[in-house]
Amino acid sequence: MNARYDLKQIMDIDKWHKLQDSMSLVTKMAIITVDYKGIPVSKHSECQAFCREVRKDSTLSSYCQKCDARGGLEAVRSNKPYIYQCHFQILDIAIPIVVDDQYIGAVMAGQVKLRDPDVPIEQIVTRPPNVETDKKFKALQEEYQSLPVLSFEEVTRIADMLFHLCNYIVEEAIRKSDMLQMYRDSLSLEHPAAAPMQTINSKYEHIQALQSELSNTLIEKKLKKSSSVYQSGNSLLQPSFDYIYRHKHENADLKEMAVLCHVSPSYFSRIFTKETGENFSVFVPHLKIGWAKELLETTELSVAQISDELGFADAGYFIKTFKKFESLTPNAYRKIYRDKA
User: Fold this and answer.
1) N or C of the chain: less Cβ packing under 10 Å?
2) Measured torsion, CA atoms of residues 203, 209, 211, 216, in degrees rounded to the nearest 10
3) Whole-angstrom Cα distance, residue 109 to residue 97?
4) How far is Cα 340 from Cα 292, in angstroms, rounded to an integer?
């Protein structure tokens, strides 16, 4: 099987590692990305201790590789995520990346146990009974019991999210890569010396755009209560609210929001305050602190991580802003909330 695109060439793998780590953290699944040949192009994010030890064993790891191969083939065949059980009855998902009807790679996720034992899921590779391997399995019982447990509904939702998200990101990367190549070719003809610097700048902006898109998607997954966008009574302001809510990881600028709403900054500020009862400079950080409270309540993210997720300049400024609105620090808020629960 040949592929027109090489994931290593169109993606900044170091950046992709960070995004993959974030996806793994949110989904509670181990994740690795492979090319169309099945060769890993990324490291393994959040690989579980049990699977890590099993894959070190020469006999058992061969069965793991058979599971990966079968899972990948089934996903390509159906052109959708394929959920299956490995030879240890651990749940895995093969998520194909298909662009222009060409299979260019896959995201392999899983290493979780299913909470619903009655759901029929194919075990694609079986391992014959063996005294030695049974002994190794018993020695890893503690690691096996510590595997994350998810419901089948959670697994299917995660599979669907990863399928659409990863394919979209790769499609955009390819589209921008093709445009970049065309631009580079034209520059090399007209301005040979300028091409390298222009290319570097364009690739940097392209990676930033991808990271921005995925960052906001991951924040949305963590924020269950605050997913709906504020519906403004003044339709003129709605584009600004749409932007603020869909770019939670950014710092919205009043002038940029005014341009988005096609009004002057002074007029935007006036009608925004009338609509919300707060100045723009107060409303946005107040809103972000509301999101931060939800992250403190429902996730194990550190204060620094939450600060980064919501686009604060640094953790110190985040803590200062949080204390301004809530009269206590983020850590104190989390402790009080957990104690009440």
Assistant:
1) C
2) 180
3) 13
4) 18
Measured CA angle at 314 (ends 310, 318), to 5 deg: 60
Is the residue at 42 inside a domain? yes
- Structurally, how many domains does the chain consist of? 3
Q: Which domain holds residue 212?
A: 169-222
pLDDT digits (tens, 9 = 90+) for 35-88: 877 788 888 898 999 999 998 888 888 888 888 888 888 888 888 899 999 999
Return the CATH number at 277: 1.10.10.60
**280 and 140 fall within a common domain:** no
Q: How far apart are CA 75 and CA 65, in angstroms?
A: 15
Six-digit token pair at 145?
A: 């019991």
Alpha helix stretches (DSSP H) within the chain: 7-10, 13-27, 49-56, 58-78, 131-139, 141-145, 152-190, 195-222, 238-246, 254-260, 265-276, 280-298, 303-309, 315-326, 330-340
3-class secondary-structure state, position 150: strand
